[in-house]
Amino acid sequence: MRKLFLFGLLATLTILPLFGCGKTYENGEVYVYNWGEYIDPDVIKMFEEEYKIQVIYDEFETNEMMYPKVEANAVQYDVVCPSDYMIQKMIENDLLAELNWDNIPNSTNIGEQFYLTSEEFDPGNKYSVPYCWGTVGILYNTDKVDEPITKWSQLWDEKYKNQILMQNSVRDAFMVAQKLNGFSMNSVDPDELKIAKDCLLEQKPLVQAYVVDQVRDKMIGNEAAIGVIYSGEALYTQRENEKLIYVIPEEGTNVWIDSWVVLKNSKNKENAEKFINFLCRPDIALKNFDYITYGTPNTAAWDLIDDEDIKSSEAAFPDLSKYNNLETYHYLGEEGDELYNNLWKEVKSE
Amino acid sequence: MANFLKKLYIALIFIFLYSPMVVLFVLSFNSSKSRAKWGGFTLQWYTNLLSDSSIMEALLNTLLIALISSVVATIIGTIAALAINNFRKGTRTVLMGITNIPMLNAEIVTGISLMLLFIFFKVKFGFMTILLAHISFNIPYVILSVMPRIKKINISTYEAAMDLGASPLKAFFKVVFPDILPGVFSGLLMAFTMSIDDFIITHFTKGAGVDTLSTKIYSQVRKGIDPKMYALSSIIFITVLILLILINVIPNGNKEKAIKK
Asked: B221: which chain A residues are within 8 Å (Cβ-Cβ)?
């Protein structure tokens, strides 16, 4: 009796997934590999209905988790959304296909300055279309800090002992120290890196914690006064706690861009380009911005925003022309990565 | 005094074990998305959960994979354990060693090697590849929990059944199987939980658009975990709790019935 029951259960459960595949898509499919929670789910449905292309959607959590899966070609993804330095690495390892810009007319909606920034990792703008962008800056709580924060050097102020949150990732932590000293954040000069390391060691006693995504909740919960944070998160924390102010430090910082790229071995290249084109449409980009809250490089979508506060928000849409010391991360090669990692280990262990 | 300390000790253990669950449970009713702020009591995450098709799909996948893989692994594992037991002692030790390696092996090694294997044989990544991977890493756990039971059985009873005219199959199901059933059952449960728990192997063997709960939750790390997941985790926890209570209450009932027979 029990066996029969088990068998019955098994049979029903195996048949279940076969239902619900009623829709037909006459124009084939497209495999999309994106960050988690990085698109409004309605946008995918709208694309499927308009273009009659089925979207097979998959999510990754970090660039580093995405890369081995794409490189091994386990699943034949068509469109992927990596960050700047990872795009450079993928170009160098010949994983990407050149885009046919004629198929992506909406790409003109993306601001000129973002294509300029993209040149740093994608020379000639051959492979990538910017999707989201932002900066790394300082978030501070006006209840706990009575002066305006404008510089990285204020993170070295004894006053804020045990009130500072630093990023717990090699490049982001070193970026702060490198910019503080006026160096490039892509430097592999051992002398410059040594100075940066010493600065970080000097700051260590003042730091409350090295964290990644806990900055968000800790700042909302008034657990720290100052934190280094990604601008996209800053907008969300400000919605939850109005005492928080986001600034881009004077010494300059990291500008990051996540862009859409098409893979070299893509079997649905045209559909992939249609998908990218669709995401560049102003109304769609705006819908995604509302959902993701990360800055959109789509200037046509920016024009559509009603709320003036958001339009001029330092976190979402800073005026980058005010700064002349902004950079994106470059892929430093394995040796460069190792150099950074070793110094970071020294900082963390001492 | 000693009694008080004993109770305190137990209480501390339970606090450490269950306070994370309590926090999760409380947060699942928080209308603010941030853990740092209490935005008021709400049931919206529970109601939204049911209408979120991607989470429900991930839940269904997780349960299907756990169920099918644990049942298949139990069948294969039990048969394998019986066979291993019949080898000479030397061979048996070697074989047991080989089946133990996958359990000690780092999951990421298993995950990547399975991925490469599937690529090599040009298998299309999807639900099937996850299922195959889960069956393969579940088998050693089943063997491990069935083996001690098999060692205990008295081979004479099986032979006696055959002498009395039972076919080997009938003798197995009437005599041997009831003896090893507790081992088989605990193997099944172990395989089921291992399968539900797994993230790394699933990550490397899954295809596009197929998610289990673990991969779904992990992909949300960058943007912050969706409170709907708190709601779902609470439901799963409560379900398991009720099941455990039922399991612990029902056996008493069964025993009484057995005596009446």
From this structure: 36, 61, 213
Domain B61-219 fold: MetI-like fold (1.10.3720)
> pLDDT per residue over A210-264, tens digit each?
987 788 888 988 889 999 998 888 888 888 888 999 999 999 999 999 999 999 9
Quote the pLDDT of residue A20. Answer: 47
- In chain B, which residue's Cα lies nearest the Cα of A11? B68
Which residues does residue A140 pair with via DSSP β-bridges, in sequence order? A226, A245
pLDDT digits (tens, 9 = 90+) for B176-201: 999 999 999 999 999 999 999 899 99
Is ipTM over 0.90? no
Three-state SS for chain B is CHHHHHHHHHHHHHHHHHHHHHHHHHHCCECCCCCCCCCCECCHHHHHHHHCHHHHHHHHHHHHHHHHHHHHHHHHHHHHHHHHHCCCHHHHHHHHHHHHHHHHCCHHHHHHHHHHHHHHCCCCCCHHHHHHHHHHHHHHHHHHHHHHHHHHCCHHHHHHHHHCCCCHHHHHHHHHHHHHHHHHHHHHHHHHHHHHHCCHHHHHHCCCCCCCHHHHHHHCCCCCCCHHHHHHHHHHHHHHHHHHHHHHHHHHHHHHHHHHC
CA distance A37 to chain B (A): 6
DSSP secondary-structure letter at A98? P
For chain A, domain boundaries: 23-133+257-315, 134-255+323-349
CA distance B172 to B88: 21
Across the interface, whether the CB atoms of A36 and B219 are under 8 A apart is answered yes
Tokens of A266: 């893509």
Q: Do B36 and A218 touch (CB under 8 A)?
A: yes
Q: Are residues B208 and A62, on separate chains, in Cβ contact within 8 Å?
A: no
Q: Do A65 and B203 touch (CB under 8 A)?
A: yes
Which chain A residues have a beta carbon less than 8 Å from that of B37?
Answer: 220-221, 240-241
**A134-255+323-349 CATH fold:** D-Maltodextrin-Binding Protein; domain 2 (3.40.190)
| Same topology between domain A23-133+257-315 and domain A134-255+323-349 | yes
Q: Is A107 helix (H, G, I), strand (E, B) or coil?
A: helix
What is the pLDDT at residue B84?
93
Parse chain B into domains and list their residue ranges.
1-37+227-250, 61-219
User: Looking at domain A23-133+257-315, does it have CATH number 3.40.50.720?
Assistant: no
Find chain B residues with C-beta within 8 A of A73's C-beta. Answer: 119
- Tens digits of per-residue pLDDT, A103-132? 999 999 999 999 999 999 999 999 999 999
Q: Residue A275: enclosing H or E segment and its boundaries? A: helix A269-279
**Are residues A128 and A118 in contact, defined by beta-carbon separation less than 8 angstroms?**
yes
Give pLDDT tens digits for A164-183: 999 988 889 999 999 999 99
d(Cα B203, Cα A82) in Å, to the nearest integer? 18
